[in-house]
Amino acid sequence: MTNDRLDATDRRILAALDEDPRMTVLALAQRTGLARGTIHARLERFRAGDALRRHSTRVTPGALGYGMAASVAVELDQHQLEAAVAGLEAIPEVIEVFAPAGQTDLLCRVVARDPDDLYRVSEEIRLCPGILRTSTSMFLRTVIPYRIAPLMDRDPGPQARGGPGGR
Question: Is the Protein biosynthesis keyword given for this protein (predicted)?
Answer without folding.
Answer: no
